[in-house]
């Protein structure tokens, strides 16, 4: 009874149709570079009739298992070169190389189930190919050493301006953890569009209490791409505090026997006199 109920649900699910499981395309890629595209599907009761990829409505890849068990790359194309990286009965992954800027646009994966349903589903994702590669951000105003009483300020900037639509984001990290908004402010000329930055403000005492140094990182992110600029922040540790520490831990470790030793020494010196 229970299994009958379950199979009805599965059948209804299948009939409702979700052959296509996902279309993965990076938001951004770079001219001359590479992008990995993936299309996942789940056919359950039926089989795959065809899987096709389109760019801006033009087909560039086709896999039809019944025709012959090998894919067809439609081309050649000035936009990119296509290579199949992986193919199973659940997923097809392609690598596009030698990307040109005109490879920007809409990528559509279309899956068709075999006879009798010939059910068709498609998913679309867009990718923008930028002319220039990303470069790491630039740190401005960092010094080698700071005082523990200082407020440490470091700017982080993009190396070149970006179109506001395709502008990377900047984030500060200390020892790998993202810095809270209370320590971060906008940096640079806000009027100069596309070249603004983000500055980090850390109280020196924070670095001192962490042992005198912390690794700061400004991370630039654009879609799946990340680049960083790093700097070790150091504060001057006063030697007196090391000496204090040494003495206090030393006397603690000595404990009662230290007292015995000292009184013994006094007794001996009294006897010598
Ligand atoms: C595809 O469309 C995008 C966005 O509309 C455009 O930038 C790109 O040049 C087009 N590419 C081709 C080859 O049609």
Give a written overview of the molecule.
The structure is a single chain. The chain is of the alpha+beta class and 273 residues long. The protein has three domains: 4-130, Immunoglobulins (Immunoglobulin-like), CATH 2.60.40.10; 138-234, Immunoglobulin-like; 242-272, no CATH class. It is 20% helix and 42% strand. The protein contains three helices and 18 strands. It has helices spanning 2-16, 204-209, 239-272, and strands at 20-24, 28-30, 35-41, 48-55, 58-63, 72-73, 81-87, 91-97, 105-113, 120-130, 138-140, 151-157, 169-174, 177-178, 184-187, 197-203, 213-222, 225-234. The protein has a six-stranded mixed sheet with strand order 2-10-9-4-5-6, with no helix packed on it. Strands 1-3-8-7 form a four-stranded antiparallel sheet, with no helix packed on it. Strands 11-12-16-15 form a four-stranded antiparallel sheet. A hairpin with a 2-residue loop joins strand 13 and strand 14. The radius of gyration is 32 Å and the shape is elongated. The site of 2-acetamido-2-deoxy-beta-D-glucopyranose has 5 residues, from loops.
CATH architecture classification name of the largest domain: Sandwich
- CATH superfamily annotation of the largest domain: Immunoglobulins
The secondary-structure element order is HEEEEEEEEEEEEEEEEHEEH
Terminal residue distance: 105 Å
